[in-house]
């Protein structure tokens, strides 16, 4: 069995923990990019996609379509606009994840006062964890900002929300990107050399070739 998961805001430590927890019968692939749509951020293919969308909507045909260079420039400009969102989603993922109480208590009959002590202790532990997180909000933001900035120049197209960037670029040129119906269409416009080695490896593993 194979399982392909988007990375979202998971860091390397979380991915490793996930890999250790998965059933040995499952072949797990966690994408390097934030989501599957990030692999569609190819200027040539996106330019072609916008041209087809405009033509289908009678918006001027091929002459009105943006060039590859215009699409590439728009992608980079919008990626910069999305940088604060990348930082915010990473911070919220780390600090606003659920805080679960310890509930692995002994079975059998337990007196009411013991139950009360156990529940109060669990609540206090949760409160302490939330207090700890609150105290580190500013330092966590700074740490995430440093990490994002260190990787930004080379990895921005893997880090931004791919679906959001695609739709913003399309809107800039008068069309929309709708994930459910457009992702397959855009993917079909990729040339073989535009498919990343990472995805090629996953496909080969699944297909056994």
Please give the count of helices: 8
Please give the radius of gyration in angstroms: 23 Å
Strand order of the largest sheet: 1-2
Tertiary shape: elongated
Please state roughly what percent of the residues sit in beta strands, choosing from under 5%, 5-15%, 15-25%, 25-35%, 35-45% or over 45%: under 5%
Q: What summary fits the major beta sheet?
A: 2 strands, parallel
Termini separation: 16 Å
Give the overall average pLDDT: 91
Number of strands: 2
Structural class: mainly alpha
How many domains, in number, for the residues?
1
- Helix proportion of residues, in percent? 55-70%
Low-confidence stretches: none
Order of helices and strands: EHEHHHHHHH
Account of the protein in words:
The chain is mainly alpha-helical and 209 residues long. It has one domain. Helix content is 63%, strand content 4%. It has eight helices and two strands; from the N terminus they run βαβααααααα. It has helices spanning 12-21, 43-56, 68-95, 112-135, 137-159, 162-172, 179-188, 197-207; strands at 2-5, 27-30. The protein has a two-stranded parallel ribbon with strand order 1-2. It is elongated and about 75 Å long. The chain starts with a strand and ends with a helix.
């Amino acid at each position: 069995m194979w399982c392909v998961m988007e990375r979202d805001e998971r860091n390397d430590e979380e991915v490793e923990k996930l890999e250790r927890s998965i059933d040995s019968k499952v072949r797990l692939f966690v994408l390097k990019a934030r989501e599957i749509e990030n692999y569609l951020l190819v200027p040539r293919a996106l330019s072609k996609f916008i041209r087809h969308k405009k033509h289908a909507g009678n918006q001027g045909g091929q002459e009105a379509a943006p060039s590859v260079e215009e699409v590439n420039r728009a992608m980079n400009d919008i990626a910069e606009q999305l940088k604060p969102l990348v930082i915010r989603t990473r911070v919220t993922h780390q600090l606003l994840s659920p805080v679960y109480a310890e509930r692995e208590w002994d079975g059998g009959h337990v007196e009411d006062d013991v139950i009360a002590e156990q529940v109060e202790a669990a609540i206090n532990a949760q409160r302490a964890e939330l207090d700890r997180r609150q105290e580190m909000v500013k330092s966590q933001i700074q740490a995430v900002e440093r990490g994002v900035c260190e990787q930004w120049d080379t990895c921005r197209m893997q880090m931004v929300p791919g679906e959001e960037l695609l739709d913003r670029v399309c809107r800039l040129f008068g069309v929309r990107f709708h994930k459910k119906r457009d992702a397959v269409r855009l993917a079909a416009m990729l040339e073989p050399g535009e498919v990343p080695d990472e995805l090629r490896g996953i496909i080969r593993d699944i297909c056994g070739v």
